[in-house]
């Protein structure tokens, strides 16, 4: 599973881990990705979405139908 939100498009950021001696090594900042299952009434089935924590809150506000419509508009598969 990639660390990528289907709704918001959140993906990992990259930076440096800096030690006490100030040596830099590569690191990765992953978004808080969750797999959530929602009932999609228009299709009469459950859909499993890979969402960031912000994406889960967005679905709570706009509803699952609008969220799935946004994902499909972005070219995502549901």
Features:
4 strands; two-stranded antiparallel sheet; alpha+beta; 2 helices; 78 residues
Strand order of the largest sheet: 1-2
**Low-pLDDT runs:** none
Helix content: 25-40%
Total number of strands: 4
Describe the model.
With 78 residues, the protein is α+β, with helices and mostly antiparallel strands. The protein is built from two helices and four strands. The strands form two sheets. Strands 1-2 form a two-stranded antiparallel ribbon. A two-stranded antiparallel sheet has the order 3-4. Strand 1 and strand 2 (24-29) form a beta hairpin. Helix 1 packs across helix 2 (64-73). It starts with 12 loop residues before the first strand and ends in a 5-residue tail after the last helix. The model has no long low-confidence stretch (mean pLDDT 96).
Care to give the gist of this entry?
With 78 residues, this protein is of the alpha+beta class. The protein has helices spanning 53-62, 64-73; strands spanning 13-18, 24-29, 33-40, 45-52. It contains two helices and four strands.
List the helices and strands and how they pair.
Layout: E1 13-18, E2 24-29, E3 33-40, E4 45-52, H1 53-62, H2 64-73
Antiparallel strand pairs: 1-2, 3-4
Helix pairs in contact: 1-2
């Amino acid at each position: 599973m990639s660390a990528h939100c289907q709704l918001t498009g959140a993906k990992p950021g990259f930076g440096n881990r800096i030690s006490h001696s100030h040596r830099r090594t590569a690191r990765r900042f992953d978004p808080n990705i969750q797999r959530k299952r929602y009932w999609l009434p228009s299709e009469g089935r459950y859909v499993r979405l890979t969402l960031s924590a912000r994406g889960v809150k967005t679905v709570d506000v706009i509803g699952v139908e609008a969220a799935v419509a946004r994902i499909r508009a972005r070219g995502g598969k549901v």
